[in-house]
Give the backbone structure.
Amino acid sequence: MKILFIQTGGTIDKDYPKQMKNYAFEISEPAAKQIIERVNPSFEYEIVSLLRKDSMDITKKDKRKILEICAEADSDKIIITHGTDKMIDTAKFLSGLKNKTIVLTGAFTPEKFTNSDADFNVGAAVGAINIVGKGVYITMNGRVFKYDEVKRDKITGKFVSINNFK
Amino acid sequence: MKILFIQTGGTIDKDYPKQMKNYAFEISEPAAKQIIERVNPSFEYEIVSLLRKDSMDITKKDKRKILEICAEADSDKIIITHGTDKMIDTAKFLSGLKNKTIVLTGAFTPEKFTNSDADFNVGAAVGAINIVGKGVYITMNGRVFKYDEVKRDKITGKFVSINNFK
Amino acid sequence: MKILFIQTGGTIDKDYPKQMKNYAFEISEPAAKQIIERVNPSFEYEIVSLLRKDSMDITKKDKRKILEICAEADSDKIIITHGTDKMIDTAKFLSGLKNKTIVLTGAFTPEKFTNSDADFNVGAAVGAINIVGKGVYITMNGRVFKYDEVKRDKITGKFVSINNFK
Amino acid sequence: MKILFIQTGGTIDKDYPKQMKNYAFEISEPAAKQIIERVNPSFEYEIVSLLRKDSMDITKKDKRKILEICAEADSDKIIITHGTDKMIDTAKFLSGLKNKTIVLTGAFTPEKFTNSDADFNVGAAVGAINIVGKGVYITMNGRVFKYDEVKRDKITGKFVSINNFK
């Protein structure tokens, strides 16, 4: 099994700025790298840093870049780390790709925080990608969703199933 | 979706002893609790602390207890956190259970360490249990294995497939 | 020995916002509380949450509040956690207080980060306040400075001695 | 200001063993290195790894080695990280050194744990060594003690003053 990890940015990769008089975060190295190194994986992998953007700033051109790198990848298993706000949008954009298994994930709290959900979420994406068939998926909040069966809860921000039966 | 988490002990739950003149670790609260709280899950769950043992110390009687609690559980999705040394043994012992999905996981480094693999591994177990059918599985080192298709690498201690093709 | 800890805000207390579509940090509970609890101190202490502001936003009125609470404190040993950008300003403002030992400290990376300097810096402040006489001090970057003998290095942002001989 | 850090081992440096079927901890790289790197210090320093022992295993010969390296050090400010059980013994052993400032510290929970007291304790040692005169000191539990004014509380294991007035 070989997995290609693609960094696009988002909360998972946010770090505290080193400069003076700075309020906001900055997007740093791919968190997936740190996470996978902690795991000592029994699979091959490659990590590509494609974008370092908050997902609110991801443009149509950026999404085309993501689609392109997925389409051309050797590996048929791809995990994309992505900001949570536009993760569903990008998942839908990629849904035309029929011969790949693509899982998008991210985090609500940056990987560099002691109480981050990043390791768990990347773990869930890897757990899912071992098994699921071709298609585009999102793993957040401990659930594995097809790209067209997921929405955000407007109050909590959690990723939930579009139907409440699951 | 509802998941029952069963604590049996092992490295994942190890904490540093608070007493003086103590060398070894002690097994503490279920790490799964801390991990799941960080995630804010979109699933229901329950955590049962059944055993707090290093897996080298798990007896046949202990394994029967684990089997019993699995057989009688309301939930048909069960994640067992377990020491790595005897994880495969316990998985085999449980393989007679046909109407449940059981995933065993654990950690090489305790959850209380900054560089732990615990969050990732529990994430992988949760990712897998969303999808896999009835049966008994192990998720370690980023792989999802059927209970009878996994072994330890004798040099690295990693969980690997019994055949090298996967 | 009794120490009064006063929270004013700053990087040390920054947490990742829980709301959707938020870029910046928010100032949370006093980090000093978490830090001191980890230490199991052999001293008495009290923690007061006075302000939760980035130090760039601290007004003259805020500084008067800080001065007042210091002047009226029962304890003659006071540690103020403060944003780094205006820490020296506030230290100078407090320098009229002659019958107290006041140490200001903070962090370059929030306490909630795995690679934070917060624990060390609060430790250095506590180590210093065991010993130093009445007066106003800053402990940052592993140094204990009198309020009027410290400046920021313009390039690195580090707190350094105003003379290079120390 | 230049500080020499000497590693002797103890809880502060303990790591989880990487081998299979291992219960106990092993003593790893000097924790002081990680801690000081997080701080970006405004002082010069050197770290020497002299011993990697639990303090229960430190022999008279080991103590002589520690004394020797202290006596011969260029720096007159020395911080020794040490196991807690025999820290006071070693401090007493070093008390003949009159022309150095020596501070011993350590931790109750290894530096590699998320809830460690190691960063704070090393911070307190550094804060103290900025100020205190020649002599041998211990900084633990947020207190700076002279080598002959400190004892362990028999129930809690905390370092406390031999008289209760301080």
Remarks:
- Chain D has a mean pLDDT of 94.
